[in-house]
Amino acid sequence: MKVLDVIQKRQSVRKYKEDPIPEKALMRVLEAARLAPSGKNIQPWKFIIVKDKVLKEKLAQASAGQFFMAEAPIIIVGCGFPDNCYARMGRYMKSWSVDVTIALEHLILQAQEEGLGTCWIGSFEEEEVKTILNVPEEVKVLALTPLGYPDEIPRFRGRKNLDEIISYDRY
User: Would I find Oxidoreductase among this entry's keywords (predicted)?
Assistant: First the structure.
């Protein structure tokens, strides 16, 4: 499949089958994240692969009660290292959040290629997630995504037209 085809087909999935994810497919999804670019190639990330049912339910509760997450065979938690990243992106910010976001997007697109569904979860209580998963204080949790075979055809939520989001030569 071509990259643009994968991007066009990807939708947020909120209903998952219990079918296990083949280990080879999971490794390709994780490899896509590993290969993502990052500021100065520091790769300031770690991904926690959560398969334990009790932990998944606790994570769903800590994610604004989005219990559909726990239906998926896996929840992936993307973490970043603010103290170990490129510190002057744009000459005003640390790169860790952008770097982890790029890696998660690579992961999400490969998941789509594998026939797996995901849903970017940004609504969560970081301290609760950190407690549940024993994440060290200096590490930040950026986002979570369930990972599994879709048990629905998500509705298309639309996108702005290209002319609404681009300009040439000037803002």
Answer: yes
Helix (H) or strand (E) run with residue 34 in it: helix 23-34
CATH number for domain 19-150, candidates 3.30.300.20, 3.30.70.2190, 3.30.870.10, 3.40.109.10: 3.40.109.10
| CA 109 vs CA 11, 30, 161: distances in Å | 10, 11, 21
pLDDT digits (tens, 9 = 90+) for 30-45: 999 999 999 999 999 9
**Which residue blocks in 48-95 are alpha helix, DSSP H?**
53-62
**Six-digit token string for 71:** 């239906």
Instruction: Evaluate if residue 68 carries a pLDDT over 90.
Output: yes
Instruction: Give the whole-angstrom CA distance, residue 34 versus residue 41.
Output: 11
The total of other beta-carbon atoms located within 10 Å of residue 126's CB is 12
Strands (E) across the chain are located at 45-50, 74-80, 117-118, 140-148
CA distance 73 to 68: 11
The answer, as to whether pTM is greater than 0.85, is yes
Distances (CA, A) of 14 to 32, 43, 58, 106, 125: 22, 29, 17, 20, 19
